[in-house]
Sequence to fold (813 residues):
Amino acid sequence: MNIIHIPLKLKTLFVMLALSTVAFAQSRIRESFNKDWKFFLGDDAAAKSTSFNDQSWRKLNLPHDWSIEGQFDEKNPAKPEGGGLPTGIAWYRKEFNAPANYKQKLVTIEFDGVYKNSEVWINGQYLGKRPYGYSSFSYEISKWLKAGKNTIAVKVDNSAQPDSRWYSGSGIYRNVWLTSTARLSVAQWGTFASASVVMAGNTWSKDDEAMVQVKTNIQNKSGLKQSATITHAIYDGAGKLVEKTQPRAIQVDTAGASLNASLRFKGPTLWSIENPYQYKVVTQIVQNNKVVDQTETSFGVRFFKFDAQKGFYLNGKQTKILGVCLHHDLGALGAAINIRAMERQLEILKAMGCNAIRTAHNPPAPEFLDLCDKMGFLVMDEAFDMWKKKKNSKDYHLNFPEWYKKDLEDMLKRDRNHPSIILWSIGNEIREQFDSTGIAITKELVNIVKSLDKTRPVISALTEMKPEKNFIYQANALDIYGLNYNHKFYKEFPVKYPNVKFLATETTSALETRGFYDTADTIRRWPRDGKTKFTEGNKEWSASAYDNVSAYWGSTHEETWKEAKKYDHVSGLFVWTGFDYLGEPLPYPWPARSSYFGIVDLAGFPKDAYYLYQSEWTNKPVLHLFPHWNWETGKKVEVWAYYNNADEVELFLNGKSLGKRSKQGDDLHIQWNVDFEPGTLKAVSRKNGKEVLVKTIKTASAPAKIELIADRKKIKADGKDLSFVTVRILDKDGNVVPNADNLVQFKVEGLGTIAGVDNGFQASLEPFKANYRKAFHGLCLAIIQAEEKAGSIRLTASATGLTPSSITINTNK
Fold:
């Protein structure tokens, strides 16, 4: 195996590197460089010097987001639009040892993402600057290394505000790697494996073949022309050899070389949403009968197309893209990436029926794409939120002229092997669509994409519907028309844009707070004309979870999905958004500090609309009944139900039938208007007269006890793995108390820590890094992180007047 992830101390790593010339398995070593950094929040230019004394600095491991550790404050420069958390300037430093012969290798330090304006020094030598906070980048450090102690220093400057339109986080928030290779080796992101299918007939069969084109960029940093041989071998998911090229003699001068190879094999297993199967191509460079470099590149075999009349096809099957937009923050964890936290988000969305993700509005973490590959999500990979025209005064428009080409090329080279990616997006709601300069920029960006990957279509998320007024569309360079919102335009799109492929790239912007229900007509729209203030709000700083509130530019979930599902020419949609996210707390002002748009709240608790999509996007039986059943006696309450796999639903109150309801026409829910009386509300769904599902909601009494539910009771003892523990406030009979807001105190014993706490309330100003949290509508969350030693973690939750609860989480190596 070429890339070795070894849980050893860095000193041990360097010993292995010194021996790598005689050991095949150590021809290339890529080691995590996340541990044992020092951090200082503030600016000190002397910190780049090797002689700088950093003994007083805080010790930490990466990834790290310093903003999420701060206090919410309306006076913070990022403002509520950016989450209301602190930004600024900070420094990171790390010391490590290297042997004298380390310079014989090609050594690079690789950053998956730093937000933002990072500058890097090695032993006081300046390596460079990278403004864009979402780009992955690397620096060669071989020539600056010395025997013994070496020092990396990184300055991160997120002080210029306002910058992002959402919470960005601050710091080295993605992984850092140290990679050692031979001087003759495959370049970073240097292998592109592009698989196509060769079919004997018009439809796919298991007897058809896969054609894999492998393009390899080789670097030669030896200073002399080098001779070698190169081979490529394809392995299946079980590690079995599928196909291999014959050794090919190559001559590589100091400018490097680009090589192409073709491999063909019969009966491939196709990558799909249901079966995300992957292969890998292993590339070896051999000199003097020794493997001097070896890389592995995962890829998938699948074929897809967009059709102007029939929408999207994957592997020959018409498939509606059922997607959501996601920003990159992980709620209480902030922007600092964590694989388990990202996996949890995707698991929740997968259970809803979601099959696609739009990375709004920037390149994601590499590990996020790995998860999409493995879990069967289609991906629209997006590059930019703006070009030359600004959305905020200090945003990326200041860097675009100098950096757009490098940033776009690096995204493409890094991500193009992921089978999950089906679309490259060059921008979101770019303001040049209203300016003739958009024509030339669009053409150039599309040309950059096509120069590096011709296998995927290029799209941009647009808002202007009139072709004569949309200059990005007029460039005639995009493969697919991406439209944001304007759901009433879907029907007439083929008339206005004949033979143009269409995708709803952003939809809905419904506004909801989990567990809050209001049917007042005054809040059914925030405001339609976009001019009136949100005076229809409420003292709870909440929006109704009935799906009856949306932004003036958007629509409710039901309004949009009704239109998208009707028409084959609508290839699919990406709902804004899958999860609530920090920042952009429309429609409320401060103290609101996170969005109301999510189908799932910031803590990961589904809102009621989640079950609307589950009933529409899955075949699993669904019956979701709401709202809660704690009201004033005599109040008229709207009772809604989402259901599928049934003909009707009958509602009972305290055993008395309130009638049967069935969806009529294009209805997506059914409802009853019920005079509240305490007791039990029960819904029964039936198909062909037979019971399918039963759901009950009971009137809860006073809060009496706490219940803890861990998403996983066994996690890895790796210092990173997480258990998300839901805290429920129950009455004496075990019912969730829907309006409970008890302050819950957390105590952790054993080999773990609290990584964050949350309750999903968009206007809570409680810190995320704490050992307490108020419940919100009966729920809150504690995120438990393992240490590196195997054992157990005991979490206890207590609140005044309530019976406490404890749970044990085991950690294993």
